[in-house]
Amino acid sequence: MNADAEWLDVACGAFLLAAVGVVWRRDAAASSRLLAVQGAALAAIAVVLGADRHHPELYAVAAGVGLLRAVVLPGILRRAVTASTEDRETRPLMNVGASLLATAGLVLLAYVAATPMVRLENTPAARALPVGLAVVLIGMLVLVTRRKALSQVTGFLLLDNGITAIAFLAAAGVPLLVEFGVSFDLLLAVLVLRVLTTRLRASFGSADLDDLRELHD
Amino acid sequence: MNELDITARTMTVSVVQVLVVLLGSPLLVGLMRFVRARMEGRVGAGVLQPWRDTVKLLRKHRLDPEGTGPAFRTAPVLGVAVGAVAAGAIPLMATGTAFGTGADMIAVIGLLALASAALALAGLDTATAFGGMGASREMTIAALAEPTILMAVFALSARVGSTNLPAIVAAGAAGASRLASPASLLAAVALAVVVLAECGRLPVDNPATHLELTMVHEAMVLEYSGPDLALVELGAAMRLTVLLGLWSSLFVPFGIATGTGLGVLLLGLLVFAAKTAVLGCVLAAGEVFMAKLRLFRVPELLAGSFLLGVLAVAASFFLD
Amino acid sequence: MDALLLLTPVGAASLAAAVYLLLGWRRITAHVASAASAIILADAIALAVHVTRRGPIDVASGWLHADALSAFMLLGIGTIALIATAASPAYLASHDGERDGSRRRYAVLVCLFLAAMATAVLAGNLGLAWIAIEATTIVTAFLVGHTGSRTALEAAWKYTVICSTGIALALLGLVMLYDAARHANLTETDALNYTLLTAHAHDLDTGVLRMAVAFLLLGFGAKAGLAPLHSWLPDAHSQAPAPVSALMSGVLLPVALSQILRVTAIANPALGTGYARTLLTVMGLGTLLLAAIALIRQRDYKRMLAYSSMEHMGLIAIGAAIGTPLALAAILLHIAGHGLAKAVAFTSAGHILATEHTTSIDRVKALARRQPVLAGIFAAALLALLGFPPFSLFASELALARAGFAAHLGLVIAAALILLLIAFAALAHHGGRMLLADADHDAPAPSPALSTRAYTPLITAVVVLAALGITVYPISSLLNAAAGVGH
Description:
The complex is a heterotrimer.
Chain A: H1 3-24, H2 28-53, H3 57-82, H4 96-113, H5 115-120, H6 124-127, H7 129-145, H8 149-169, H9 176-204
Helix pairs in contact in A: 1-2, 1-7, 2-3, 2-8, 3-8, 3-9, 4-7, 7-8, 8-9
Chain B: H1 8-39, H2 49-58, H3 70-89, H4 105-125, H5 129-160, H6 165-174, H7 182-198, H8 217-220, H9 226-251, H10 262-289, H11 298-318
Chain C: H1 2-23, H2 32-54, E1 57-59, E2 64-66, H3 68-94, H4 100-122, H5 126-144, H6 150-183, H7 194-199, H8 206-224, H9 232-239, H10 242-271, H11 273-296, H12 301-322, H13 325-356, H14 367-370, H15 372-386, H16 392-406, H17 410-436, H18 452-470, H19 476-486
Antiparallel strand pairs in C: 1-2
């Protein structure tokens, strides 16, 4: 294995482990730190791929991605956490042990499901694609099984990080303009969610999604 | 076919390993207690205290509680015997032991599980509340730890193509870059958690507790006294030494003796002793800062380590 | 000239947003949004004429693209935007207690919404379309929560989370599609271009394309209100201000569906019609089933209209599943008719809310006697939604059924018709109760009374709907050309 492939493996491993950490640690403050680590790992993946494929523009993309997903977005999340008095996910819909076992199943599912994409290319980057898909599935698991509003935002960010990782590891990302648009949209979406969380807390007294049950048939 | 690999060298290696573990494990336990005491601001009882305790206990009169049977009597001896066999099989100071292809990782893990199952049965045999409680807790933890071990073994063996311990350790010693791969790192963390669980160390079980309701291992052996207690303690110490040695051989195999020659073997022995001592001290220092997990949080920890094991297997298949 | 045609809608809407941002909501700026919508409509007509005579237009090397489908959707956007923005001043006036800031925010967001929708429809690149649709989620999040009540916030939260998740899944599909396209030797800028992708569909790797299409359909389906990611729809539509609900039902849902049509146009040549057909049939029938069941026990008339939207979207999805030119023409007509009818229905529902001060079906009674004109308009919209002739939904549903039987999907059509029947019964029952039930003796008089100026656009829309049901003469060539695009 050449050095680039090893660095890629380390970055992908850190990326996946950060997602596992979000499932393991239930409190939102730890989640924001783990998301920062994941953002840094994503930027590292972009840097390694840029060096490997000789695409210098990937360095700029890596810098942008790192700034957004390792600094700005976890920062917004952390400020939302400190603004609240309750930050522990006390009653998730699925307990942590079961979530971790489900995560194991999802990782294996991701490896199976991503075989068509892996088959397209015979490079270490393509072989690491299932990691991105696994993080997407883990993000959906967190979205579905958590009750606190901030935990849902965390799940959404995991989902998006996973999709970006797949974009980097597959062919050559998406066109630069689209990547820029996606990042901008993501930032705005998180800001919207942050504002809504504040209003929810002011209106309902807590951002526990179980309290949002007034609209139903 | 399992074939014993009996040459003069491998025989020497096995015998020396057994003797060193037998005599040196109380020393390791003493060292760990010493480090912990000093870090907590106490003077401590000295590194040789476990030896002194063993000698004292061996001189006492043998007592069996009323109503106990063979399970109670055989568990201590079995523990020591298993520790000795494991010490003879696992490549601790050299990559070739007398067991040859019989030194299969799954077999060794199974042996250690046998010892803990025997101790659990002994705890049940005493028919006391604490004995039963400790036995059920111990078995819960073991049941959750076994899948993790198997996953980690699988991850390590996938690379080499067999579960034979000398082969795995030799491959690790030969190619150092493989040790930094994600599969190796993940398996290392998973196995570390399992070692903590199997040896009854923090955060799974507190070996220094005197509160019966928080005990796991200690509760099973509450009724032992005299020579039996000495054997039980010795067995636990040997288990700790063997598992720490296994971990260091698998993931930090630098210095292990790969060739013949007395000098190389001696170096291997010294390196093994040093590595185990360092690991023990690190563990003891860490224990000063850790709190014991509540029992219903232990499955979370073990599920997490199982997940890491699964990831290690996936990484070893797909990331190479 | 071409560039001007394609850039005008976005430009007009953005300019209107800037005006509102700078000047706020005053008497002079109150109709700027309607003016922008009128400009969009005019541009759409010009574009439709140009496209049917001279074929598709490409601007900025394929990033902006207008074919018959785009022109048709833009026509729809312009019309419904006009109705909704014409009703906005009345809505904002009836909520007089609000500060000027929230009205300005409402107006700016509505104009940005129109700009994003126009971009999505005129995009020639799937990536640009995706960005535009994601932008609409962000813009409408605050519009849904505009009233600030607890239920509105809950609806806004659900809407944002579910739609963002769905759109993220669509992004995943997009990434996979890009991967397949690059491996089929399309260049970086062309790999997400509709026309090139449709042309090179056979070169795309089938395994990857299958996964990409599944995620794209799931993601865009979430925005269109199709099962399984549909649960935001009733909440968002019932809590949003009535003009916003009209815009969402009439514009947002169809635009998301048009993206689904573009995706199936890429999928069908490469994977055969069976794959996309199965996915869309399951999604469409599922949506219809959920909507029909939910309609039976409805107690809130705005939620009832929202579920009716879901029902029609399910029907359109089944039409997209059939995929023949007749089916596509039918669903395009259905999109137009449903959009108009739903816009009228939601706008009049907004007036009913303003005058009766309740959204409960039980508490609104004898509307026909208390407010005859409003009741007439509402009744006409409901009749259109139920599929009565002469309204165009009758013609489009009939054509859809014919297309389905012709394509040997008779069982699917039969199931859909049964579910439509259930929805018909529920809707008719609830609507009839609202309009014709005996009034309470001590019910207060409706207040405030509405002017004819507010009614005129609604009546015009109803008349257009009826005319469309009788003949599609003005837009028939456009309709046929658009159906050809999606095939």
